[in-house]
Amino acid sequence: xxxxxxxxxxxxxxxxxxxxxxxxxxxxxxxxxxxxxxxxxxxxxxxxxxxxxxxxxxxxxxxxxxxxxxxxxxxxxxxxxxxxxxxxxxxxxxxxxxxxxxxxxxxxxxxxxxxxxxxxxxxxxxxxxxxxxxxxxxxxxxxxxxxxxxxxxxxxxxxxxxxxxxxxxxxxxxxxxxxxxxxxxxxxxxxxxxxxxxxxxxxxxxxxxxxxxxxxxxxxxxxxxxxxxxxxxxxxxxxxxxxxxxxxxxxxxxxxxxxxxxxxxxxxxxxxxxxxxxxxxxxxxxxxxxxxxxxxxxxxxxxxxxxxxxxxxxxxxxxxxxxxxxxxxxxxxxxxxxxxxxxxxxxxxxxxxxxxxxxxxxxxxxxxxxxxxxxxxxxxxxxxxxxx
Length: 388
Ligand code: NAD
Ligand code: MG
Prior knowledge:
Elements: E1 3-8, H1 13-23, E2 29-36, H2 40-47, E3 54-57, E4 66-67, E5 70-75, H3 77-86, E6 91-94, H4 102-110, E7 114-117, H5 121-137, E8 141-143, H6 146-158, E9 168-175, H7 185-188, H8 193-196, H9 206-214, H10 216-229, E10 236-240, E11 246-252, E12 257-261, H11 267-274, H12 305-316, H13 320-336, H14 344-353, H15 364-387
Parallel strand pairs: 1-2, 1-6, 2-3, 3-5, 6-7, 7-8, 9-10
Antiparallel strand pairs: 4-5, 9-11, 11-12
The structure holds nicotinamide-adenine-dinucleotide and magnesium ion.
């Protein structure tokens, strides 16, 4: 029986890589749902090789589209959630960018399907709720974020599922360091959008590429790892590794360190997540050691304050990680629109985190409310700055 797959955010970087994997594995997988956000053309192009898939555009303003390559039958967020439920998918790859990925992740789990999770915001914002929903339907979560896919497989191989106890001393989360790894703080003040968008090792969507340049991406990934693997964030250490070959490591209590290595190619972790715990030959990411040199450095929290702010948000817990994420999304959107400078990003996030975020019961509503308010406060800061 072929596994039925939904690809959420099919038109993006993760989505297109997923379709590449699926194109070569049609004996094992049947694509039942493809989603995009606002434009019909790219979604219809995705559908060309996967006839029969339900096509959904989550953007509320999307217009019904029907061409020779397929019919877009679902429009708007509610319709996307309904399509997830009715698609009968066994597994969904969530490659939606940002906080908008949370509700689709929950819909996948509630439908009893497994979740191949690239959308890191899902775990950053609401890890306890996500784990609860997964457990209720016995749905599995397979990380796609390359570091987390590595850690998942390392823990599975070396900790026999017992990483919650003290077998695991620490997770060593690798970071490329981004394009400004060696740049002075003074020079960072003047970096341009084009410079921030030029990632040295990975080709990804614009938001995560900016996050890699501020190291907010690694901050989000620290919180994501803590949520996925049920460890406290202080057990997750960042190691800068400019070549992006070691995708992460774990150190066990006897001191031994285990690592996962492959070329920086998202198609390997996507392949692994799609096949679940089975080890199946994969044409992507195979490493050649000839002439390979690997380096490791300490992260610089002073030049990359987004890292320190992430640990702070993780330590505070509750809605703070969602606030960190929401404020950062707003800040990055302003940087992408040339309304904020590069170094404004951490300033905005710190300003928002410094507000009082009341601790009530942790619910989906409280998380979404905090996300919403974080963006409003970030917007106020940016508007004030623009007035000056
Ligand atoms: P992208 O911008 O290339 O693609 C995003 C996709 O989400 C597109 O299909 C877009 O149409 C859709 N989308 C955008 N806004 C939406 C909304 N409000 N509702 C529903 N759909 C929406 O992004 P990406 O680089 O593929 O990243 C996607 C996610 O995967 C992010 O959470 C990112 O952090 C994570 N991730 C990406 C990579 C990578 O290599 N690109 C690696 C690891 C993790
Ligand atoms: Mg990653």
